[in-house]
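TASK: fixed-backbone design
INPUT:
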């Protein structure tokens, strides 16, 4: 199966039937913690929203493809912050989890770790 077929346009995502869960985040770089967090939300069909990120390592499309490859994910959409609110309002998700703050913290921790290793 080509998991890229899980990647929807914003319009197609807005057409999903009710009882969907939404998780938004950057997913740059995709980590095991991300997979675990997504698995915890997996009580309903799962739509993951991949957001743009300044100074990204991978393009937004590449990050969407990586997330789509996860078995726990049913749908993926690339969007902007305003689109996340539009999706949440239009779909009335049973669960809505925003991972942006956790992703920013983890990226910072990773950069600090790399810098420490390089200067040791």
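OUTPUT:
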């Amino acid at each position: 199966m080509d998991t890229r077929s899980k990647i929807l346009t914003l319009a197609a995502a807005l057409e999903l039937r009710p009882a969907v869960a939404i998780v938004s985040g950057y997913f740059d770089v995709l980590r095991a913690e991300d997979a675990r967090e997504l698995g915890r939300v997996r009580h309903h069909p799962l739509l993951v929203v991949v957001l743009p990120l300044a100074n990204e390592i991978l393009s937004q499309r590449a990050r969407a493809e990586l997330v789509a490859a996860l078995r726990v994910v049913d749908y993926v959409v690339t969007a902007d912050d305003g689109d996340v609110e539009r999706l949440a309002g239009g779909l009335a998700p049973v669960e809505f989890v925003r991972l942006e703050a956790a992703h920013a913290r983890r990226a910072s921790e990773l950069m600090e770790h790399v810098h420490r290793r390089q200067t040791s």
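COMMENT: The CA atoms of residues 23 and 97 lie 5 Å apart.
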